[in-house]
Amino acid sequence: MVVLVSGALLAAAILTLLALIAFHLLGNYVRTWYKLKRIPGLSPTLPILGNALLFKPSGEDFFLQLIEFTSQFRDKPLMKIWLGTLPFVVLFHAETAEVVLSSSKHLDKSYAYKFLHPWLGTGLLTSTGNKWRARRKLITPAFHFTILTEYLEVMIEQTDILLGKLEKQVGKGPFNCFNDITLCALDIIFETAMDKKIFAQSNSDSEYIQAVYKMSDLVHRRQKMPWFWPDLVYNMFGEGKEHEKALKILHSFTEKVIAERIHKIENNEDVKQSSSESDSNSRNKKYNTFLDVLLNATYEDGKNLSEGDINEEVNTFLFEGHDTTAAAINWALHLLGSHPDVLKKAQEELDDVFGSTDRPPTMEDLKKLQYLQCVIKESLRLFPSVPIFGRTLLEDCYIGGFKIPKGVNAMIIPYALHRDPRYFPDPEEFRPERFMPENSDKKNAYAYIPFSGGPRNCIGQKFALLEEKVLLSSILRRFQVEAKQSCDDLHLVGELILRPRDGIWIELHHRTN
After folding, report:
1. 90 - beta bridge partners?
2. pTM
């Protein structure tokens, strides 16, 4: 009898606790609802589900819908969206984005980034607070100018392989170059970040690449469907099995590479290799790769990075360091191939710097390519590699005249923000001249944020721009590029990365001048 009474009391206590938690959560939800009531938003907004049912499940449809909504609200300072019980303020003006991005307070990524944690852990992209600050400080030396100069040799070597593949397409009609560019970027990031050749360009069906695309799609789909946010529900009724399969491929791949690098360090194989290269008059200067910086912190600097710490930073860097750059190069090729006048001007600049030689570029050469840099920047304005990103507001603040309570998520949309006609007249037009020095000082610093902005901007932007210059300059010196898609043919898919649904189709010919 006593046991039954005790069990009943325990059950009652648990039910009471759950009821109190539910009441507390419901109370917070209702209070936030009323605090945000004045902000313009979508309709209808349903209790609990919010606006989730308005959005279609595919990445293509979701992104295009979101962009359409920002167009409808263009004359408003911001708009709100409820995804389930989670509120977002959507920012697509420089002035409102600046409030969040320039702040040293609002550095935490939004709730939606939680679904990247199984893949990337809490590395530099997803970490918060003191952990993020410590990692940022630790990793910054990997992007010092002198190291970028060393990376140039790797970029040139891998670009030469890409040029050989593109040569086979000359005069053979339209082809999709998206995967070729992506594989080249993957080879570059693995060798510069981990001192590991993976020969992705000779393996067009790379399991790692396919797993990256699959994981990106799964994460993005889950972010839009609040009913699949609980892990138990997702694993039982959602795409949990596919998620686990892709995750295993991604993690096992990087874990193997890290283990190999540790083995080389422990056996002083770098020293032996350097000595051998010196004897044969090859490159004998050894630079610290991204992975070396992490391992040195563990072995020499006493930072006590665990194996898990290293894995999450490496996975983050490999994802962010190849997919974003590859997309940017592809979009630039499409735009150049669609605008012969811009292509001609870029090639004239290349001829001025390189003449008729086929010598590899130096850092000094690349600095002189000012117009090509404008082409890259304008391409990133029209097609930012990361079309959407988010932050969690860590304190109450005013945005666009509205008081936004602590805990609300800010969704910043560079794709829409970059099309503000106040800063970019005729915003859909491709005009690299916008970024010439005499034109680029007249706008708000947050009107153009392809690499985010403020204290949490992209740590690898100099690396990315260097790689984009190397690949594009090399391609344009040799080939005439003709785009084979109109804007309507692109079918934008705005997931973690902005991609064309069916790739980038171009036609190549040898330059005749």
Report:
1. 79, 411
2. 0.88
